[in-house]
């Protein structure tokens, strides 16, 4: 997969008025699995975007900022025998904060495809996107936490997406964190399992329930050493603070 960086992503493929991305594809849902490292300030990610193809195309364009890509492919959704089409080149425009993935075979109009993207990002210190911050606990020890600030246009710092308020999708979030850390997202937990990494480190893989259809800037998650209290409301809802 060859990478190029230009001021015009996608070999001159233009944006629509006001910088809106071409509407060749419509994201139906994002399934995002992120493994943040609070020591190296890097996060590893595996993303599957389910797309409705509105117009036959061999290229898809997303908003993206400060992300590094290692593997991109697509296949027809819900078809175990479908061919996997691997991205042969991609173009990054830092100026426009977009990335264009090109494929040797068209996505055909009317089809539903799953686009799989493996990438890494940086836990920046700019309070934008998926960022890091520090605080002192009651003992005066400095701690690091990671949290998100996507409004208005910084979801693109955490995952490639159509980062426009009018474009709404369902989000499935999974966070893989050291077992001693706590993590949260918009929705309650669906499941939690323990996994072991190289060197014997123990992690929790926490999957959250799907969100309603919503804009990218509304997605949120955080990771850190958090304490909380919880209680059940009169209506039976679990409330955690």
Using brief descriptors, characterize the structure shown:
single chain; mainly beta; Immunoglobulin-like; four-stranded mixed β-sheet; 1 helix
**Structural class of the secondary elements?**
mainly beta
Question: Any idea what the CATH superfamily is called?
Answer: tricorn interacting facor f3 domain
Q: Tell me about the biggest sheet? A: 8 strands, mixed
* Count of structural domains: 1
In whole angstroms, how far apart are the ends?
A: 45 Å
Beta-strand portion reads over 45%
Tally of alpha and pi helices: 1
Organism: Corethron hystrix
GO biological process, one term: proteolysis
Domain Aminopeptidase N-like N-terminal: 26-218
Cofactor: Zn(2+)
What is the topology?
Elements lengths: L1 E4 L3 H4 L12 E13 L4 E12 L3 E7 L3 E10 L8 E2 L2 E5 L4 E10 L4 E11 L6 E8 L5 E8 L20 E9 L3 E4 L3 E8 L5 E7 L12 E4 L5 E3 L5 E3 L1
Parallel strand pairs: 1-7, 2-12
Antiparallel strand pairs: 2-3, 3-9, 4-8, 5-6, 5-9, 7-8, 10-11, 11-16, 12-15, 13-16, 14-15, 17-18
Short description:
By secondary structure, this protein is mostly beta strands.
Task: Summarize the structure in words.
With 241 residues, this protein is mainly beta. The chain is 2% helix and 53% strand. It has a single domain (2-240), classed as tricorn interacting facor f3 domain (Immunoglobulin-like), CATH 2.60.40.1730. The strands form 4 sheets. The protein has an 8-stranded mixed sheet, with no helix packed on it. A 4-stranded mixed sheet has the order 1-7-8-4.
């Amino acid at each position: 997969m060859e990478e190029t960086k230009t001021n015009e992503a996608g070999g001159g493929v233009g944006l629509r008025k006001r910088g809106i991305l071409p509407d060749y594809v419509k994201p139906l849902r994002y399934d995002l699995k992120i493994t943040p490292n609070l020591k190296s300030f890097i996060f590893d990610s595996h993303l599957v975007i389910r797309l409705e193809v509105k117009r036959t195309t061999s290229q898809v364009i997303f908003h993206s900022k400060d992300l590094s890509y290692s593997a991109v492919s697509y296949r027809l959704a819900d078809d175990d025998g479908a061919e996997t089409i691997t991205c042969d080149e991609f173009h990054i425009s830092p100026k426009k904060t977009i990335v264009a993935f090109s494929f040797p075979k068209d996505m055909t109009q009317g089809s539903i495809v799953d686009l799989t993207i493996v990438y890494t990002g940086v836990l920046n210190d700019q309070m934008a996107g998926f960022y890091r911050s520090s605080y002192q606990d009651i003992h005066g020890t400095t701690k690091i936490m990671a949290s998100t600030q996507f409004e208005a246009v910084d979801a693109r710092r955490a995952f490639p997406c159509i980062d426009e308020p009018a474009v709404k999708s369902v989000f499935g979030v999974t966070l893989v964190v050291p077992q001693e850390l706590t993590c949260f997202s918009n929705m309650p937990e669906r499941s939690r399992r323990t996994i072991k990494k190289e060197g014997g480190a123990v992690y929790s893989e926490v999957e959250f329930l799907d969100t309603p259809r919503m804009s990218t800037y509304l997605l949120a998650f955080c990771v850190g050493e958090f304490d909380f209290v919880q209680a059940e409301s009169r209506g039976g809802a679990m409330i955690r603070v």
